[in-house]
User: What shape does this take?
Amino acid sequence: MQNHENPTPKSRVYLDHNATTPHSPALKAKWMEFIEISGNPSSIHQDSRIPKTILRETRQKISDLLSCSPLEIIFNSGASEGNSSVLKSAFNTLKETRNEFLVSQVEHPSIIKTAEYLISQGAVVHFIPVSKSGMIDMNFIRSKLSHKTALVSVMYANNETGTVFPIKEITELAHAQGALMHSDCVQLLGKAEVAFKELGVDYATFSAHKFYGLKGTGFCYVKKSTPWVPLVHGGGQERGRRGGTENVLGLAALNVVLDEIKNCGPKISEMKRLRDLMESKILSDISNVSITAKEGQRLTNTSSLVIDDVDGETLLMSLDLKFYSVSTGAACSSGNPEPSPVLLAMGLTRAEAQSSLRISLGWGTTEEQVVNFVNTLNEVVTKLREINLEEKKKENVG
Ligand SMILES: Cc1ncc(COP(=O)(O)O)c(C=O)c1O
Assistant: This one.
């Protein structure tokens, strides 16, 4: 069915901001200036002056934002490195006395895969279940925490459903047993306004490309006196905590976007208005759609849908042809799309997980884009359902 009120947009509409964000306009404006910076921050001569200043200022801005000491920030390549570093640090330093870990089932693969590696090295990992509404099982945490627990790792918010977890409460439980607490905070900056220090965590991991900065740039918060073992050994950078010449241009870019993060409250509210508008239009215009984890606290930009009788991959590709970038939770490996482990862990059936679509809005998303997107989604879903029906009829006749 054609919808003539909904012309195909002339340029692409990006609705996949939980995967990565576009570079901020302020960063783009500065980029040609940055490309002239080439000195090594560790050198002694004059050419190291600007890179050193960039590192110092960026570190200071992060510590102002997180209300921590600049010494508690370690620059790295992003959250996969940060997450691996945290889990391995806790294991390598505490394994003789505490070798148990609690890790939520819906963590990013950089946590899950590291946890599996730790199991191969002798650690015991308890994977914390979540309910269909996305909530974490606090009783499970209480029952498994003990004097043997080294670390609890629960993300601030889930990248697929947007569910926000009660980190402060979990930290209190972990600390009461003398365990360390880590939170993957990748989906926090630019999407939620939080007094970070109140979360109380010992480790937190961040990635600049999730909040309008560059890929390959990240940082880790490590509370003073918390165990740390470098993942990358090298020339003493980051006070010996992470070897390798620092990503100076990535950090110059981070410096710019951090100024925007400080003032992004109105943008977060606007994303909520548009997300809510989008969801209510979807529910009123398209039949048999449900919103995953709608009941709990969610990031304001994220919407995870289950659209009955439609294959998520096919839907994604059809929307792509109409210039919309969205995502499914599916991890497509070797051409064999598997349903999202996160949605399966939440208790969705394989069929539900395979009919899922994630839409994540950003600072630049407009009302017009959202309304046109829902019209296009309606059109595509209607068409795919008609095709499905036709195929089923043919099968029955055959
Ligand atoms: C929750 C979460 N953690 C970690 C990562 C990995 O971040 P990076 O791309 O910086 O390695 C991602 C990115 O997809 C994520 O969404």
